Each structure stands twice: as structure tokens, then as C-alpha cells.
Amino acid sequence: MSAPLPQKGLGPSMPVMPPQQQQQTHMPPGLAQPGVPPQGALREISPVYLCRIGQETVQDIVTRTMEIFQITRATQLPNGVTQSHAAYQDRFGKLQEHLRQLTLLFRKLRLLYERCVEMTPDLQESTAELVPYVGEESTPVRVEPCNPAVIQERQEVLEKVRQKNQEMKVLMDQMRNLLWDVNAMLTMRK
């Protein structure tokens, strides 16, 4: 579920929506928006639904961040060139609005994460299991014995790779020597 976009018509340079569009976006209080569960069902939301909302929130965060980068890229440095103060104020206002929305999206994402953690305590893994820290002993990974045919096939593939590597090394050496000879002949011509 994406965060609400800034309302139109708030700033001096922002257009106001026509009354027909404003009426279309307004829904009566009894009707729920599609994709949004009714108020009574908020307690029964599944973690999968929360993860989907979280994914959409992350997409909104990326979009807002890219818009911030586009605004900053389009801004010229004040290197003696006088620009309109109103243009700078407009860009600064847009930047502030994007940053405010970004902050709200991160808060929303944090709440979604905490709610998912509450709903799925049995699925939680410690961070040490996912990414081992430097200096800590990691738990050895249990390796199951392979089928002898698989081990034999692996050995054959490794031997083929060694042979190909050796052939490539020989070719690279020949190419290097050829280039040296060509460069030496070119310098002797001059």
C-alpha cells in the first residue's frame, strides 16, 4: 500500500485538481477502498499481506529517493550566476516534502517489520545465522555425503576446467609474444 501523495493545490506553483476529479477520489465512509481491508479485519491481517504492503512501501521509498536525486541533479550551484529566488524556493519545498514523505515511509516500513516479527516468532532467525560476524566461529555446515557418481562427475569437470585454463594460458602467452614482436618491429621502422 503506497503512502499518500502530497495533496494538490497546497503550494503556490502546484495546480489545483478540478472539482470533478476531487469528487471521484472521495469515497463515502461506508465504502472501503479496494485492496484495503475493513477496520474490523485489521486485527486479522496475515503476515503475507503485511509483507506485500512492505514491498510496496520499499518501492515508494526507492521512487522518492530517485526523485530527490533528480531534484538535486537539476539544481545548479550558485557560482555567481543569479537565478530566480522563487525557483530555488520551489525546489527546496519539493525537496523538503520528499524528505518528509521519505521519513514517513521509513516509519511505516519499521512498523510493518515489527508487526511481522510479532506475528511470526517461530520463523525468526538470529542475525548470526544469516551473516556471521568477523572473529566469531561460525557453526559448521552439515555436508551430506554425495553419490560416488556425482563425485566422479565433479572430478571430470574440474579436470576439463584445468585443461582449458592451461590451454588459455598458452594462448595468452603466444598472443603476448606476438604483440611484443609486432611492437618491436613497429619501433624499428621508425
From TrEMBL:
**Which Gene Ontology molecular function entries are recorded, alphabetically?**
transcription coregulator activity
Which keywords, in A-to-Z order, does the entry hold?
A: Activator, Coiled coil, Nucleus, Transcription, Transcription regulation
Compositional bias (Low complexity): 19-29
Quick one: where is this thing mainly located? nucleus
Q: Where in the cell is it found?
A: Nucleus
Ranges in a coiled coil? 151-178
Q: Has keyword Secreted?
A: no
Query: Per its UniProt entry, which superkingdom is the organism in?
Result: Eukaryota
Pfam families registered for this protein in UniProt: Med30 (PF11315)
Q: Which InterPro entries match?
A: Mediator_Med30_met
Task: List this protein's GO terms for biological process.
Answer: positive regulation of DNA-templated transcription
Mind naming one GO cellular-component term on file for this protein? Answer: mediator complex
Name the segments for region: Disordered.
1-31
Please describe what this protein does.
Component of the Mediator complex, a coactivator involved in the regulated transcription of nearly all RNA polymerase II-dependent genes. Mediator functions as a bridge to convey information from gene-specific regulatory proteins to the basal RNA polymerase II transcription machinery. Mediator is recruited to promoters by direct interactions with regulatory proteins and serves as a scaffold for the assembly of a functional preinitiation complex with RNA polymerase II and the general transcription factors.
**Family the UniProt entry places it in:** Belongs to the Mediator complex subunit 30 family.
Q: Mind telling me what this protein is named?
A: Mediator of RNA polymerase II transcription subunit 30
Organism (species): Cyprinus carpio (Common carp)
